[in-house]
Specification:
Blueprint lengths: L6 E5 L6 H14 L3 E4 L4 H7 L6 E6 L8 H13 L4 E5 L2 H6 L2 H15 L4 E5 L7 H13 L4 E3 L11 H11 L4 E5 L5 H10 L3 E4 L2 H12 L1
Parallel strand pairs: 1-2, 1-8, 2-3, 3-4, 4-5, 5-6, 6-7, 7-8
Helix pairs in contact: 3-5, 5-6, 6-7
């Protein structure tokens, strides 16, 4: 297993500087991460830095609250794709989900899916920490119906992040139909490995370099 190829090397803090984003991209190329994940304002910059690289550009839509209207998320995602993004991590309408307005949740996802096309990767963040298990199950079912490629556990902003129990639950629902992205609070190789063993096929973390270096030590 090449764990680097399963990591979205992320820097989503609002105070991130241009030099920090540049370093993120340099690390992305050096370590061969699946992607670098940045806020939309940095997509064009990262696209230039990583031109010709196998490292994909991942960005976010409706982040971190998910409380924008579907058309706003769709426009944000569409603009990011035009500027060079390969993957979109959108935050679902969590309030609608908890209100039982499942039609709106699905419309929200489909709006972004339609905006970016089928060839780009769409991940949907559901913020598992604020959901009951039944809501996590329903959300995953809606995400599959909406045509997304991944269900993602967390934004990593303000709530408990990924847990083994949640990843196992999402995997049980999704099977092999869509991927599971574990994100939030993943800061070491041991934690990442447990989540992968539970069913995660992608890891979102700002500790990608540390995790890869620790994985090398474990192999020696």
């Amino acid at each position: 297993m090449n764990i680097a190829q399963m990591i979205d090397h992320s820097l989503l803090k609002p105070e991130a500087t241009k030099e920090e984003i540049r370093r993120l991209c340099e690390e992305g190329g050096e370590y061969g991460f699946a992607s670098v994940c940045v806020n939309p304002v940095w997509v064009c910059f990262c696209s230039l830095l990583l031109k010709g690289s196998s490292v994909r550009i991942c960005t976010v839509s409706g982040f971190p609250l998910g409380a924008n209207k579907p058309e706003v998320k769709a426009q944000e995602a569409e603009t990011a794709i035009k500027e060079g993004a390969d993957e979109i991590d959108m935050v679902t309408n969590i309030g609608a989900l908890k209100s039982g307005d499942f039609k709106l949740v699905e419309e929200d996802i489909k709006a972004v899916r339609n905006a970016i096309g089928k060839k780009k990767t769409l991940k949907v963040i559901i913020e598992t920490a604020v959901l009951a298990n039944e809501e996590k199950i329903k959300a995953t079912q809606i995400i599959m119906a909406g045509g997304a490629d991944f269900v993602k556990t967390s934004t990593g902003f303000g709530y408990l992040g990924a847990t083994v129990e949640d990843v196992k639950l999402l995997k049980k629902v999704a099977g092999d139909k869509i991927g599971i992205k574990a994100s939030g609070g993943i800061r070491d190789y041991e934690t990442a490995l447990k989540l992968i063993e539970a069913g995660a096929s992608r890891i979102g973390t700002s500790s990608g370099v540390k995790i890869v270096e620790q994985s090398k030590s474990c192999k020696n």
